[in-house]
Amino acid sequence: MEPYVKQTIKNGVGYIEFFHPSHNSLPSNVLSELARTIKKAGDDSNIKVLVLKSGGDRTFCAGASFEELVAINDEETGKEFFSGFANVINAMRKCPKFIVGRIQGKTVGGGVGLASATDYCMATKFAAIKLSELNVGIGPFVVGPAVQRKLGLSAMSQIAIDANSFYSAEWAKEKGLYTKVFDSTEELDEAVAAFAENLCNYNPKAMSEMKTMFWRGTEDWDQLLIQRAKISGRLVLSNFTKDTLRQYK
């Protein structure tokens, strides 16, 4: 199947789904379309609440596209690529509607950032998380603020330094990333739909004001995340990272 970003609306809920055949990795074109779709949905009066999900059964998101990382040959291109993650997180942050995360499987790197940028996140027991960036010689610089905001500095530091390990869905729930963990994708989907549709009964203006309150203190992220993208864009050019990426490829 070809990569895609698509949106459907059901009972006032806007479902935004992304997919890539390589374990839902995120190349720049998918990132830009995801940011655009979130922004557009935020302005759509037919949508009261958003759900962010990915296609397939086993992996929510494998993070950055290694194919694209290997091809980066200058700092500006690197900054532009990592800015794609910044743009998606900022679109989620500034969206006036609650975004419910639906995490059906493992999520790595940038995918942990997306899950952390949702306002309310549910998962299956298979949705272990890993910040793998240090493994390839960079770090979770762009997604770090979103992950730290959700998990706290101690937990974020733990998984960022221990870049080889997956941490269980239950661990992520204990740290505040997930609100509920289910035994199956079917149970997860039922719970996400019921929860999101119930939110549609609330005052949209009240929910928008609440979201602004929850995200207070992140007003500098437009600049901060781009600054972080520059760091990643520089590090991805290092010999260490280039050699590691070639091995993975």
Give your account of this protein's structure.
By secondary structure, the chain is an alpha/beta fold. It has one domain (4-184): 2-enoyl-CoA Hydratase, Chain A, domain 1, CATH 3.90.226.10. It has helices spanning 28-42, 66-71, 75-94, 110-116, 144-151, 153-161, 169-174, 185-199, 204-214, 221-235, 239-248, and strands at 4-10, 13-19, 25-26, 49-54, 59-61, 63-64, 99-103, 106-108, 120-124, 129-130, 180-182. Strands 1-2-4-7-9-11 form a six-stranded mixed sheet, sandwiched between helices. β1 (4-10) and β2 form a beta hairpin. α1 (28-42) runs parallel beside α3 (75-94) and α5 packs across α6 (153-161). The longest helix is centred in the middle third of the chain and has 20 residues, at 75-94. The two termini are 20 Å apart.
Average pLDDT taken over every residue: 96
Tell me the helix content.
40-55%
Question: What form results from the Cα inertia axes?
Answer: globular
* β-sheet strand percentage: 15-25%
Overall tally of domains: 1
CATH architecture: Alpha-Beta Complex
Q: Fill in the CATH topology.
A: 2-enoyl-CoA Hydratase, Chain A, domain 1
CATH H-level superfamily: 2-enoyl-CoA Hydratase, Chain A, domain 1
The CATH class assignment is Alpha Beta
Can you write the helix and strand succession as a string? EEEHEEEHHEEHEEHHHEHHHH
Number of strands: 11
Largest sheet: 6 strands, mixed
How many helices in DSSP terms? Answer: 11
> What distance separates the N and C termini?
20 Å
**Weakly predicted, low-confidence segments:** none
Q: What is the SS-derived class?
A: alpha/beta
Radius of gyration: 17 Å
- Spatial order of the strands forming the largest sheet: 1-2-4-7-9-11
